[in-house]
């Protein structure tokens, strides 16, 4: 009879034999499949040759449609075998971003040269003001600059969804379980006195809660929370601190324009009314279109969508849409928004809430109140994935603010990035220690939600973690680890602030930009990166001298000047150019000639571009309405650009297919095929062609500035030589 230990060893030997046999079978199978795989990769052009041959043969037999379908199937097989899905997806979204933004300026790209040695990199990006567009912009910039692919931290609840999860897995995202995504209603009711919480009505604290869970109570318009320190029994527990809530005080804020936009119902009603009216008008005028009715109806729908879009933009923004009639100035509306309960208004009037920011208040609950809780989430698995990714020399992107916002300043940064770096460095110590660089990335938008706007991506100096901090994190106490995390986050905060444009509110940011425009000499045009750097210089210098009476007077004057520009709908450079100037007859002739040439250029560009604007009017209207609906749901401007891009990516192909069907049925098969294959290319060409004159004029001004600087230097050198002689 075998002993238990011998029996265990015998079973272990059997399992090992099975594992050896299975591994041998897998090795044999891989060797068998290796040769066909190599042949397919090396001689894949045979598939294309067979596709062309089958198409020709089947077409000659009298079945051209079947021949085209078979050849298309062969081409799809070839592309699927030779093209990476990840690269194809990245190329698609990079192309979308190139169409959405007119210019993506990169600053500090020379600071990324040392990343080519294969070290691990973490890109810390801020501010996060454009939801899904921000990571794509950073991915595109990093890929073009360093050739690296950035893997992003993705919420676990999004990672498990079908569509978003597919994209996240293809793009090598790393799932992160956030407690806020798993908020659950607690059983029974609670009362709270300071840190002591008592349950009523069948609470189950021992089953639902544990140390580290968070209790949330919503009462009287506030949302209070507290972390569980110790669970005593099903009806008693102790919090680490009393239940508390934060009061956000804003002295002045913009009234977002999406709050007073047309409702979707009214928008649909206007489109339907205008479409039916145009079709009736065409029919009443007696025009006869034997086979053109699908195209005529489509044109009527396009005109109706364009007119509705202009009306929608007029009601929403006060002026017509910028993409239609040029860049506009929105009316400057001010309102006071206090995200706090009504009983704090008296405190604000008494001076308790006179400072802008957040004030914490404690909440005691005397009446039994319903509650929810956030479970404690163990992030060890996520950190292990991050450490393995960094150990392989991977690249990770993270937004340490934790979410999107519309502010002009940074939110408090989370400690996740410091825990990742310190944990990985402490885990992989040895003769060849792991190299990790933290690169701050500043995203500076000029109009983040506007089509064909500009964005500046600025890279800061690389942050290297010292061995002292790693040793403190690895072998120190809990307080030492917190101190190490705090020191790393201070370095990260300084790095992010050095490459971002920050201001305490929107009005101050606009004043900095007004000062920058006034400071730049007439006739000088700066690049996007230079504009950001100069505005950032004003922001940094303002903090040092903001209490100076002269600076206060300057800021008041700049504010009044900006309000006058908004009131009269003019630009700063127009004021500089025409203020107090009397034109001579020669200058007047040059001005008239310039105006004539620009009008002719505008007409010559508008004639071929207007049909494409008309064709995309339904997509533009859908994107505007849906993005405003989503912004009203979350009360954030940061989702508008994302939903515009998503709606365009979904509806442009659909509407393009509908237009192709209309052209096919109205004008024949050749017209339908020409529209399907060449209309998108013509549209993209028209977008870039319309900006050629602007780019040429900007380049000419830039060379003029260079010539002025060089000429000044030459004159100074000649003057010095004369002095020496």
Overview of this structure, please?
The chain has 725 residues and is α+β, with helices and mostly antiparallel strands. The protein is built from 25 helices and 20 strands. The strands form 4 sheets. Strands 5-17-8-9-10-7-6-16 form an 8-stranded antiparallel β-sheet, with no helix packed on it. Helix 10 packs antiparallel against helix 23, helix 14 crosses helix 16 and helix 15 (467-475) runs antiparallel to helix 16 (478-497).
Q: Main beta sheet: strand number and arrangement?
A: 8 strands, antiparallel
Structure classification: alpha+beta
- Chain-averaged pLDDT: 78
Strand content: 5-15%
Radius of gyration: 32 Å
Strand tally is 20
Low-confidence stretches: 1-21, 23-39, 250-254, 320-356, 701-710
Q: Strands across the major sheet, in which order?
A: 5-17-8-9-10-7-6-16
Question: Separation of termini?
Answer: 114 Å
Keywords for this structure?
58% helix; eight-stranded antiparallel sheet; 725 residues; globular; alpha+beta; disordered N terminus; seven-stranded mixed sheet; 25 helices
Question: How is the secondary structure organized here?
Answer:
Blueprint: H1 4-42, H2 45-60, H3 64-82, H4 85-100, E1 101-107, E2 120-126, H5 133-146, E3 151-155, H6 156-159, H7 162-170, E4 174-176, E5 184-185, E6 189-193, E7 196-200, H8 205-208, E8 214-219, E9 222-233, E10 236-239, E11 244-249, E12 253-254, H9 264-284, H10 293-317, H11 322-325, E13 334-335, E14 338-339, H12 345-349, E15 357-362, E16 365-369, E17 372-374, H13 380-391, E18 395-398, H14 416-427, E19 436-445, E20 453-459, H15 467-475, H16 478-497, H17 506-519, H18 528-545, H19 549-568, H20 572-578, H21 585-615, H22 617-634, H23 640-667, H24 669-689, H25 692-724
Parallel strand pairs: 1-20, 2-18, 2-19, 3-4, 3-18
Antiparallel strand pairs: 5-17, 6-7, 6-16, 7-10, 8-9, 8-17, 9-10, 11-14, 11-15, 12-13, 19-20
């Amino acid at each position: 009879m075998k002993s238990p230990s011998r029996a265990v060893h015998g079973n272990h030997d059997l399992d090992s034999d099975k594992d050896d046999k299975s591994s041998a079978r897998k090795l044999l199978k891989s060797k068998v499949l290796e040769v066909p795989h190599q042949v397919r990769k090396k001689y894949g052009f045979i598939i294309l040759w067979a596709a062309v041959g089958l198409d020709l043969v089947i077409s000659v037999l009298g079945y051209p449609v079947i021949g085209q379908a078979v050849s298309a199937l062969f081409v799809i097989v070839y592309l699927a075998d030779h093209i990476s899905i990840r690269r194809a997806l990245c190329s698609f979204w990079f192309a979308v971003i190139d169409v959405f933004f007119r210019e993506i300026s990169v600053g500090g790209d020379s600071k990324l040269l040392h990343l080519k040695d294969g070290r691990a990199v973490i890109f810390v990006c801020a501010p996060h003001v454009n939801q899904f567009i921000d990571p794509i912009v950073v991915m595109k910039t990093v890929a073009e600059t360093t050739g690296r692919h950035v893997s992003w931290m993705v919420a676990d609840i999004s990672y498990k969804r079908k569509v978003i999860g597919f994209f996240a897995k293809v793009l090598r995202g790393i799932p992160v379980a956030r407690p806020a995504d798993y908020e659950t209603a607690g059983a029974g009711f609670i009362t709270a006195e300071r840190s002591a919480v008592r349950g009523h009505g069948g609470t189950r604290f021992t089953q639902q809660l544990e140390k580290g869970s968070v209790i949330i109570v919503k009462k009287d318009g506030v949302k209070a929370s507290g972390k569980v320190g110790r669970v005593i029994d099903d009806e008693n527990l102790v919090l680490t601190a009393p239940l508390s809530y934060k009061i956000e005080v804003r002295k002045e804020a913009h009234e977002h324009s999406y709050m007073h936009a047309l409702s979707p119902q009214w928008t649909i009603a206007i489109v339907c009314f205008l479409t039916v009216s145009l079709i009736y008008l065409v029919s009443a005028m007696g025009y006869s279109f034997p086979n053109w009715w699908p195209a005529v109806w489509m044109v009527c729908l396009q005109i109706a969508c364009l007119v509705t879009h202009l009306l929608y933009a007029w009601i929403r923004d006060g002026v017509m849409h910028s993409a239609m009639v040029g860049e506009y100035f929105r009316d400057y509306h001010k309102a006071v928004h206090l995200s706090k309960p009504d009983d704090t208004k008296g405190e604000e009037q008494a001076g308790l809430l006179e400072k802008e920011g957040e004030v914490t208040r404690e909440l005691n609950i005397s009446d039994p109140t319903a509650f929810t809780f956030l479970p404690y989430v163990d992030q060890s698995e996520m950190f292990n994935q991050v450490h393995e990714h960094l150990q392989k020399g991977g690249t990770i992107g993270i937004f340490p603010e934790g979410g999107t916002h519309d502010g002009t300043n940074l939110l408090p940064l989370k400690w996740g990035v410091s825990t990742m770096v310190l944990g990985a460095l402490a885990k992989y110590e040895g003769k060849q220690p792991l190299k990790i660089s933290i690169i701050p990335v500043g995203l500076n938008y000029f109009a983040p939600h506007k089509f064909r706007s500009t964005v500046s991506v600025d890279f800061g100096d690389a942050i290297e973690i010292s061995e002292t901090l790693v040793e403190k994190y690895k072998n120190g106490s809990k307080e030492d680890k917190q101190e190490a995390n705090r020191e790393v986050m201070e370095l990260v905060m300084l790095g992010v602030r050095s490459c971002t444009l920050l201001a305490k509110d929107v009005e101050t940011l606009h004043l900095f930009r007004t000062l920058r425009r006034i400071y730049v000499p007439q006739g000088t045009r700066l690049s996007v990166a230079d504009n950001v750097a100069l505005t950032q210089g004003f922001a940094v210098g303002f903090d040092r001298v903001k209490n100076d009476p002269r600076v206060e007077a300057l800021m008041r004057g700049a504010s009044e000047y900006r309000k006058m520009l908004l009131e009269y709908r003019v630009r700063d450079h127009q004021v500089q150019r025409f203020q107090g100037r009397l034109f001579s007859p020669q200058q007047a002739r040059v001005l008239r000639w310039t105006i004539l040439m620009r009008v002719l250029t505008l007409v010559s560009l508008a004639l071929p571009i207007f049909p494409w604007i008309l064709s995309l009017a339904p997509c533009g209207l859908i994107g505007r309405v849906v993005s405003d609906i989503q912004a009203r749901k979350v009360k954030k401007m940061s989702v508008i650009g994302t939903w515009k891009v998503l709606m365009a990516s979904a509806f442009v192909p659909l509407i393009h297919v509908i237009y192709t069907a209309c052209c096919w049925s109205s004008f024949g098969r050749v017209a339908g095929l020409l529209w399907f294959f060449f209309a998108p290319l013509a549209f993209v060409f028209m977008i870039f062609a319309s900006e050629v004159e602007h780019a040429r004029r900007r380049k000419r001004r830039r060379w003029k500035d260079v010539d002025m600087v060089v000429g000044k230097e030459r004159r100074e050198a000649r003057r010095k030589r004369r002095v020496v002689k």
